[in-house]
Amino acid sequence: MHLINMDTISRRELSATRADTSNDIAYSIGNSALGTILVARSAVGVCAILIGSDDGALTNDLAALFPTSRLIPNEPRLRDDVDKVARFIERPEAGLDLPLDMRRGTPFQRRVWDALRAIPCGAMITYAALARRIGEPNAARAVAGACAANAIALGIPCHRVVRSNGTLSGYRWGIERKRALIEKEARA
């Protein structure tokens, strides 16, 4: 049990302490070169970066991802996060420095996502090579499933994974967006 000394804590700190244990997800929507982007944050960090063409569809996707959370729209403090994501899409070589909340994933998915985060901008890897990298050489299909379950586009760069023959395969946010990201990173 964590006790709070009310004599030494400010109201702001108390509010932040409450937020750390809440189930709230704040989000904001903006535009990018790839279309509409939605960035969502829990008390831990960014828990979703979704890409699409329709605000309503992105909001519905977020609600489906976090059915037990209270969603707080148009959060002003997330404008910086939305701007960072839009800048990353334009200039991927600058990186995307955001704290991530990957708790939604299974332990296996989180291992895959951690390995994806280690792939440098402009590099690509196959599903089979990624499976070997995490110590599961026969799990290429499961790795593909973990990539498909990723809700933190760009923060967890599953767009950098290709088939064994080097061709592009599915991408949660559309194969054309995947191609555009890979091409932009290759030029960076």
TrEMBL record:
<protein>
    <submittedName>
        <fullName>Methylated-DNA--[protein]-cysteine S-methyltransferase</fullName>
        <ecNumber>2.1.1.63</ecNumber>
    </submittedName>
</protein>
<keyword id="KW-0227">DNA damage</keyword>
<dbReference type="InterPro" id="IPR036217">
    <property type="entry name" value="MethylDNA_cys_MeTrfase_DNAb"/>
</dbReference>
<dbReference type="Pfam" id="PF01035">
    <property type="entry name" value="DNA_binding_1"/>
</dbReference>
<feature type="domain" description="Methylated-DNA-[protein]-cysteine S-methyltransferase DNA binding">
    <location>
        <begin position="107"/>
        <end position="186"/>
    </location>
</feature>
<dbReference type="InterPro" id="IPR036388">
    <property type="entry name" value="WH-like_DNA-bd_sf"/>
</dbReference>
<dbReference type="InterPro" id="IPR014048">
    <property type="entry name" value="MethylDNA_cys_MeTrfase_DNA-bd"/>
</dbReference>
<keyword id="KW-0234">DNA repair</keyword>
<dbReference type="GO" id="GO:0003908">
    <property type="term" value="F:methylated-DNA-[protein]-cysteine S-methyltransferase activity"/>
</dbReference>
<dbReference type="InterPro" id="IPR001497">
    <property type="entry name" value="MethylDNA_cys_MeTrfase_AS"/>
</dbReference>
<keyword id="KW-0808">Transferase</keyword>
<dbReference type="InterPro" id="IPR036631">
    <property type="entry name" value="MGMT_N_sf"/>
</dbReference>
<keyword id="KW-0489">Methyltransferase</keyword>
<dbReference type="GO" id="GO:0032259">
    <property type="term" value="P:methylation"/>
</dbReference>
